[in-house]
Recover the amino acids of this structure.
């Protein structure tokens, strides 16, 4: 197996009222708020054609995660059997990528209001795609 | 905007009969073949609990992509208006992440047969998650 590494460069950042992992719901559909995606001006041209109402997938980098965890109790519930991280959506995983299916609610310059989204304030955004 | 960079470490690699971007269909549901995901043995414990029939999202890193493209004609079709990359699924994008919704067809040690998937042979795999 190659030991090649790649560099991921944030394209933007989440601006949210959620300030810590402890405050955040585990999934967007569990009471998460709306939030702003503030795009880096260097890539904001990539938003061309985005409109209010679009269903998109925001890909984040959970920068506060532990990257050395391979098995865990899903949702931190000790009554659930130990499971491999690749069968869970835990933010603690080798490459802590988060997938957030959200609706574009408002567009203002290089900022998109989206929601609902469970990512905390300051979470780097690394990609945006149309819904699968 | 912070200039922080993060390091993404492949967890595995695609083994496919598709050997070049020119051969590959643009989406998995456009006649793509099945392929093997060969996991790095260092992270194969993370597969615990994965079973045949699971619907998963394989996240790849399109290592042959151009990262400096922000607008393009979707699907390379000059009759389509120029669009920002974040409204397309083009592999050419600032962080060339690919999302592939596939079914687990077979499990053999640290390898998963999945499909259909349009990623070419040698494409790094960076994460696996259960379907959204």
């Amino acid at each position: 197996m190659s030991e090649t590494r790649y560099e991921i460069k944030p394209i933007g950042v989440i601006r949210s009222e959620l300030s810590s992992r402890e405050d955040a719901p585990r999934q967007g559909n569990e009471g998460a708020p709306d939030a702003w995606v503030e795009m880096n001006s260097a890539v904001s041209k990539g938003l061309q054609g985005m409109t209010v109402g679009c269903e998109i997938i925001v890909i984040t980098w959970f920068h506060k995660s532990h990257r050395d965890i391979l098995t865990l109790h899903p949702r931190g519930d000790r009554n659930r059997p130990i499971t491999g991280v690749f069968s869970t959506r835990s933010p603690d995983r080798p490459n802590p990528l988060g997938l957030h299916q959200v609706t574009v609610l408002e567009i203002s310059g290089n900022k998109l209001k989206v929601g609902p989204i469970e990512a905390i304030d300051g979470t780097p955004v690394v990609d945006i795609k149309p819904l699968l």
Summary: Chain A has a mean pLDDT of 94. The beta strands of chain A are 6-8, 12-15, 35-39, 55-61, 71-72, 83-84, 97-108, 111-115, 124-130. Chain A touches chain B through 53 residues (CB under 8 Å).
